[in-house]
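Protein Record: Sequence and Backbone Structure Tokens
======================================================

Structure line: whole-number tokens from a learned vocabulary of local backbone shapes, matched to residues.

Purpose: to set a sequence beside its fold so the mapping can be learned.

___
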Amino acid sequence: MAQIIDGKAISQAIKDEVKAAVEKLNKDGIEIALAVIQVGDDPASAVYVNNKKKACAYVGIRSLAYELPEKTSEEELLALVQKLNEDPSCNGILVQLPLPSHIREDVIINAIAPSKDVDGFHPANVGSMLIGQPGFLSCTPAGIIQLLKRSNISIAGKECVVIGRSNIVGKPMAALLLRENGTVTVCHSKTQNLKEVCKRADILVVAIGKPKMITADYVKEGAVVIDVGIHRMDNKKLCGDVDYDSVFPICSAITPVPGGVGPMTIAMLMYNCVLSGKENSAI
């Protein structure tokens, strides 16, 4: 029977570790503060921001909330980011994506000081990750690495296939698997013979954005399947990019949706905030 990789339990363990680290920093007179900026009132973004605030409260990180109107200009948002860059009491800056169409996401991401970019999206942090230098790792891929390691799933020497090449998941995921000595193939919309490529995978990471697209005929028997997708179906239930019911009987381990990858993203964000607090306090 396949191992169900419990993202809730593993993320809770990481948050408890972060909480202990925050308590130690507080005893040393260092307070960690995360600024979360939301522009507009996108319902999904509001849920994510609320979950981040709850996680901050749990681990003892001060949350600075900036909820800006939809009509906020790019210049106004840049001014706020710059103000937070210069504020020594703010350790991390997170701008909730997506932004309204009149604001360029890349301009805003590039404006965040790399030392406060706890999302790990700034080109300086992405570059550091690629060449193995210290820096913040993108939270979802870093969380997936923790899911694998803490589930005693070895990456070294394994054939790893990543479906999806986004800057937020696919590309950094491939880089982190490579860093763990996996042999990595990245698939995307132009990949030919997708099923055949996927069936080579010992570890299959699916971040394609299409509900239940990956069925049993994409998966090698005994493979580890990591499902990054999350979708709400017509019946209001959540599902991932993987057809869980058909894949479960043939894989050796799988992440459920919900309760798999999702909780890890916020746990790793909290972890990055502590790193930022240590770095910015020159500990």
In short: The longest strand covers residues 33-39. The mean pLDDT is 95.
